[in-house]
Automatic annotation (TrEMBL):
Leader sequence segment: none
Residues in coiled coil: none
Textual note on the cofactor: The Mn(2+) ion enhances activity.
One Pfam family it belongs to: M20_dimer
Statement: the UniProt record of this protein carries the keyword Metal-binding: yes
Top-level taxon in the UniProt lineage: Bacteria
Entry GO MF terms: hydrolase activity; metal ion binding
Domain Peptidase M20 dimerisation: 185-275
Keyword presence, Metal-binding: yes
Protein residues bound to Mn(2+): C101, H103, E135, H160, H357
Protein name per the record: N-acyl-L-amino acid amidohydrolase
Length: 394
């Protein structure tokens, strides 16, 4: 099975690169991936498959028999509001929008896997999910689940391009590989007044300063540091004049944690701490706490299988992936079925190591073939394990 996928990748090398370059040059934002969905549909149909569109954008395709225990792979298809600065001949043709997170690579890997498996006699079913809207708060995974995308799925895998790892390497990690990511928006209010008479009013700027310094400090004393919980503010705005105490100010930031139990109690804990900090200032506040995504918690057995699959492709491929503080909505799938996300090496091995969500991100295209072969090996290892014992689970 893996050998068949490997042969297909070699035979269709130029075609697959053409898919990636088309996707890269025609990025679409979350929930707007209309042309991307149409392109994927047309390629899948041309290779003898019958994709099923989701009610919004995105689609999935089933391959192999209807056995009710499908192995699934997820690819995210949306782009970002980031201006591309790579200078590539197939750079984004859409002003201010680009695939600066590598989703074009994820999508191409999944698309090639689907087309390669179309020519294989599979003992069990495989589902490839092309998910919209990974980059928005909450994530399109919730819609896919609501639309029945996990029905009949027993285990699910995904990969994410990693420009800090060399091409050919696959990073694996059991347990938390990403963090929960929530947004904190605070509006602090007071009567306003003159800076010469602060005793006659409530000082909004002072309250904001107290929150900026004290809230992260208090949080660090209330949460186990081993959970990787961190609060960082990225935006503060208050006032227009140096001698006027404003009536309102705004503070915004993100809070992240790798621990699912901690994540579930963060909103209540932060509300208590904000009360403690703001009360002595005489100001009032309104908290808008936007829940994001839980951490991606890779299943132990599914991660071990991924490591075995990677080594079957290349004995030196598998490395330990670091735990990231970034958020990923693949986590929502793992609330329902076991699975794992891996990091796909995308650095050429020479020159600059780029970063995700940056306009100069330049992924080495050799990573695509590595990703397809890795996924093909996962399919083989999974079905071999399934024939010998129950599939990986929690």
């Amino acid at each position: 099975m893996a050998a068949a996928v490997d042969a297909w990748v070699t035979q269709h090398h130029d075609e697959v690169l053409g898919w990636r370059r088309h996707l890269h040059s025609h990025p679409e934002l979350s929930n707007e991936e209309v042309e991307t969905t149409k392109f994927l549909h047309d390629v899948l149909v041309a290779h003898g498959l019958q994709p099923v569109p989701f009610p919004g954008t995105g689609l999935y395709v089933d391959i192999g028999p209807e056995t009710g225990d499908r192995l699934a792979f997820r690819a995210d298809i949306d782009a970002l509001k980031v201006t591309e600065q790579t200078g590539l001949p197939f750079a984004s043709t859409v002003q201010g929008i680009s695939h600066a997170c590598g989703h074009d690579v994820h999508t191409t890997v999944a698309l090639a896997l689907a087309c390669a498996l179309a020519d294989v006699d599979l003992p069990h079913g495989v589902r490839i999910i092309f998910q919209p809207a990974e980059e928005v708060m909450g994530g399109g995974a919730l819609d896919v689940i609501k639309w029945g995308g996990l029905e009949g799925v027993r285990t699910i895998y995904a990969l994410h391009a990693e420009p800090k790892l060399r091409v050919g390497q696959v990073g694996v990690r059991a347990g938390a590989i990403t963090s929960a990511s929530d947004v904190l928006r605070l509006r602090v209010e007071g009567p306003g007044g003159h800076t010469s008479r602060p005793q006659l009013t409530a000082d909004v700027v002072y309250a904001l300063g107290a929150l900026i310094t004290q809230l992260p400090a208090l949080l660090s004393r209330r949460v186990d540091p081993r959970t990787g919980t961190v609060l960082v503010f990225g935006h503060v705005d208050a006032g227009d004049a140096p001698n006027a105490i404003p009536k309102a100010g705004v503070l915004e930031g993100t809070i992240r944690t790798a621990d699912i139990t901690t994540w579930r109690g963060l909103e209540d804990l932060l509300t208590d701490l904000i009360d403690l900090v703001v009360a002595p200032t005489g100001c009032t506040y309104h908290l808008d706490y936007v829940r994001g995504v839980p951490p991606v918690l890779n299943d132990d057995a599914a991660t071990a299988l991924a490591a075995t699959a990677g080594r079957a492709v290349d004995p030196h491929a598998i490395v330990t992936a670091p735990q990231s503080s970034g958020g990923e909505d693949f986590s929502w799938y793992l609330e329902h079925v076991p699975g794992a996300m891996v990091r796909l090496g995308a650095w050429s091995g020479a020159g600059e190591k780029y970063d995700l969500h940056q306009g100069n991100l330049n992924i080495d295209e050799r990573a695509i073939a590595v990703g397809v072969r890795f996924f093909g090996s996962v399919v083989e290892q999974y079905f071999n394990a399934q024939s010998a014992s129950p599939a990986p689970g929690r």
